[in-house]
Amino acid sequence: MSFKIEEDTRCLLIVEGIDDKAFFQKLVKNSVNNLQILTYDGANKIRNFLKLLKNDPNYYNVRKILIVRDSDNNPHSSFLSVRDAVREILNEDADIIPFSHGYRVGILMLPNSENEGSL
Prior knowledge:
alpha/beta, 5 strands, globular, 3 helices
């Protein structure tokens, strides 16, 4: 897993996979300035991804971070796993979006889909 936060990035959208990335790129195309979309390649890799993220020299230039995750079979448990990783590794509190209480990090849980595909 390799990435670099661009120097002018102020908003990071972190998604689980390449399909999610393609979806959000089309959704926000030309509507959000200084946004970078990164993938962490699966729910079980979020902790390692956050460690790399925090060590990037441009991490502290980022004002808002939104982490998107599939809820799988247990939305509450999935949310807690991301929130706990953010607290432990980034030393930040996170909440379900919108960014309530002035949190820098938000978490968006995508609903479980009965059909193939996550979106």
